[in-house]
Amino acid sequence: MTLSAFLYRHALIAATPLMRVGLAWRMSKGKEDGTRLAERRGIASRARPAQRPFIWCHGASVGESMALLKLIQALTERGAFVLLTTGTVTSARLVAARLPPNAMHQYRPSDNPLWVRRFLDYWRPDLVIGSESDFWPNMMAAIHARSIPMVMVNARISPRSCHRWQRFARNWARELLAPIKMTLAQSQEDARRLQSLGASPVLCVGNLKFAADPPSADPAVLGELSGLIGTRPVWLMASTHPGEDQLALQAHQALVQEFPDLLTVIAPRHAARGGDIAVQATRQGLSWARRSQQGMPQSGCSVYIADSMGEMGIWYRLAPVACIGGSFVPMGGHNPLEAARLGCAILHGPDMSNAVEATAALHQAGSAMRVEDERGLAQALRGLLTQPARARQMGQAAHDAALAQAGVGDRVMQALAPILSQIGLPPARGAFEP
User: Fold this and answer.
1) Which positions ≥6 away from 333 have C-beta within 8 Å?
2) DSSP 8-class letter at 353
3) What are phi and psi of 82, to 5 degrees?
4) What phi and psi, each to the nearest 5 degrees, are found at residue 424?
């Protein structure tokens, strides 16, 4: 055990009382589910089924967990039982209704060695499948100590994170990653960075999000909203973070003279921010309605604040143009593939480092445009709103580009086949086919 790992482990054991206080504080802010807070301490709220093999999959938040759903379905259809853990309230609510039979959800325990031990003692997984870049040192060390095979799918690591590990904790990174049986990277660059930190073997199979189903939409709600909007020009600012709402409002102001009935839909990444967006819109003299307050985009509404959960499929279907949030602030951008699968023309800001290859594929197809600021955003929107045929063409190209990459499911299952056979699962017959 490296010194860094030793210090980290014992610091968290000593901090157990403070971690309890921290969970209570997060619960008071709506960041934890008070009815299931014990799960964060490794205390299960569901009975463990006897079915074997028992596979534990982990997706940190919404994007990661949604990308795992079809993989989970494929695993359950081949006879496994799957436990999916996530770390956020939003992701828990969204995946609960989408999990197939023979799968259940729990919250991932915080990385306290005592809570990790309790979690593993109870669930006793035969295989652990992690995703993206959610590395938890104490949990990974405990999994390795119990000789439980672990693989990473859809793995990625940003240049910044890779640099920090290499500079400050290179040996610790190698200790963490070396026991992983297989790492399936999103891109060649991710594969190279993970190998430099000690992961082996590493295969580049593509982004599992390409294989995910597009977000669903309630037909009745979609029909009602579509009827209210009618022929109004409409665009979506999707999954925004603080600072990006203001950018969307400024773009709206720059366009409203040319498009007086323009409707701007803002869907914040965190629904609780709806009130803040409403305040900003009021300050700019813009009329607004909030989805969370049963408001509707009537004819006098300029800004519709889509502060609800699980309805992104509605907004992508209503708006022919979608601008991807998290890309104008240092967040790395959010998944553009949901919008692409539903035929939106794609706009995004300067930072799409979380989805480099997906973004590149969309640009290559002529379905995405990069803009630098509110002026560039307004200019791009002006062109697409003036030429709706061009927006439709970009949207179709985005849909086709996303669909063309869906074969990543085949590659994931083929790569996992040797490990799955070791725990008793039959070989896959095709990409996510029963």
Assistant:
1) 324, 325, 326, 327, 348, 349, 351, 352, 353, 354, 355, 359
2) G
3) -120, 130
4) 100, 15
Tell me if the bond preceding 201 is cis, omega within 30° of 0.
Answer: yes
The helix/strand/coil state of 84 is: strand
Which member of 32, 39, 64, 175 is catalytic? 64
Predicted model pTM:
0.80
Which residues of the chain have a pLDDT value below 50?
431, 433-434
Per residue in 53-70, pLDDT (tens digit) is 999 999 988 878 888 998
Q: Name the DSSP letter for residue 100.
A: P
Rounded to an integer, what distance in angstroms lies between the CA atom of residue 378 and that of residue 64?
A: 31
Nearest alpha-carbon partner for 402 in 242, 239, 207: 207
Reduced 3-state DSSP string for 296-342: CCCCCCCEEECCCCCCHHHHHHHCCEEEECCCCCCCCCCCCHHHHHC
36: which 2 tokens?
């299931």
Instruction: From 97, 357, 348, 86, select the one nearest 239 (Cα to Cα).
Output: 348
147 sits in the region (left: phi over 0; alpha: psi -120 to 50; else beta) called left
3 state DSSP class of 105 = strand
The question of whether 64 is a catalytic residue gets the answer yes
